[in-house]
Write a structure and sequence with these properties.
The chain is α/β, with parallel strands linked by helices. The protein has a single domain (about 15-250), classed as 4'-phosphopantetheinyl transferase domain (Ribosomal Protein L22, Chain A). The protein is about 30% helix and about 25% strand. The protein has helices at about 45-50, 55-60, 65-70, 75-95, 155-160, 160-170, 175-190; strands spanning about 15-20, 25-30, 40-45, 105, 115, 120-125, 130-135, 140-145, 205-210, 220-225, 235-240, 245-250. Strands 8-11-10-1-9 form a 5-stranded mixed β-sheet. A 5-stranded mixed β-sheet has the order 2-12-3-7-6. The protein has a two-stranded antiparallel ribbon with strand order 4-5. Helix 3 runs antiparallel to helix 4 (about 75-95). The longest helix is centred in the middle third of the chain and has 22 residues, at about 75-95. It is globular. The termini are far apart.
């Protein structure tokens, strides 16, 4: 009797390069050239500062976006959605030369939004902050409000490996938890696969870390830059390692 020969499974390794880039200099958004070359433009929006313009911002949203906004029960959540979506439209309009209302969002195979223009973008919001990343390559961003009393005990073992858990529990646990969490989220958003059961396999400690790229549905290496845009907030930007520069802008348009 002959038994089938098992084929060796070839692992396609990729590298995640995790680093910190604090401090950064946030420029006035009106200084942006709105031209994408080999850089990532990162935009920071203070939701509270945009609330006086809420009515005007709501006017540029499409009907489906208004419906999504109205599904939020809390005013704070509804307002944050309106500000984040209208700001994204305004910023993309500057890069593409279109009116904000003319921007048409489409969904790719992984349901990651895109537009018919040679640039990539990603958005994240938390608390009263919105972060938008614009790049010439796939990009992902995650911002989290640091909750000092956040209870992570029920989820830490299913989302972090043993080394990461030891790192988090050693000291400054809240900051360390959200630092590693934003890295996992950012690279998942960059690849477009969203939350997955493979979070434990995404090594988010500082330095060069190898992993099976199939778990992220990617063959590319990724550079993850973590920073504090403001007190009590953490952000990670996941981008292509060929990126040469990062520019940081306060939205004031």
């Amino acid at each position: 009797m002959q038994f089938p020969v098992k084929q060796a499974v070839e692992i396609s390794f990729i590298t995640l390069h995790n680093q910190n880039i604090d401090p950064v200099i946030w420029q006035d958004g009106r200084l942006c050239l709105f031209i994408i070359n080999s850089q990532v433009d990162i935009w920071k929006i203070d939701v509270n500062s945009q609330l006086p313009n809420l009515k005007k911002q709501k006017e540029i949203l499409h009907p489906d976006e208004i419906m999504r906004a109205n599904k939020y029960l809390r005013d704070a959540d509804r307002n944050r959605f309106i500000v984040s979506r209208s700001t994204l439209r305004n910023i993309l309009g500057k890069y593409t030369g279109q009116e904000p209302t003319a921007i048409e969002f489409k969904l790719g195979n992984t349901r990651k939004p895109y537009i018919d223009f040679p640039l990539h973008f990603n958005l994240s919001d938390s608390g009263d902050r919105v972060i938008i990343a614009i790049a010439g390559y796939e990009v992902g961003v995650d911002v989290e409000f640091i909750k000092p009393d956040f209870s992570y005990d029920s989820i830490i073992s299913s989302h972090f490996n043993a080394q990461e858990i030891e790192y988090i529990k050693e000291t400054d646990s809240a900051n360390r938890f959200f630092k590693l969490w934003t890295r996992k989220e950012a690279v998942l958003k960059a690849t477009g696969i969203g939350l997955t059961e493979h979070l434990v396999s995404i090594t988010s400690l500082d330095g060069m870390n190898r992993m099976d790229g199939e778990l992220l549905s990617t063959k590319s290496d990724w550079l993850l830059n973590t920073l504090m845009p403001d007190e009590n907030y953490l952000v990670t930007i996941a981008s292509n390692p060929v990126i040469e520069k990062y520019y940081f802008y306060n939205y004031q348009l």
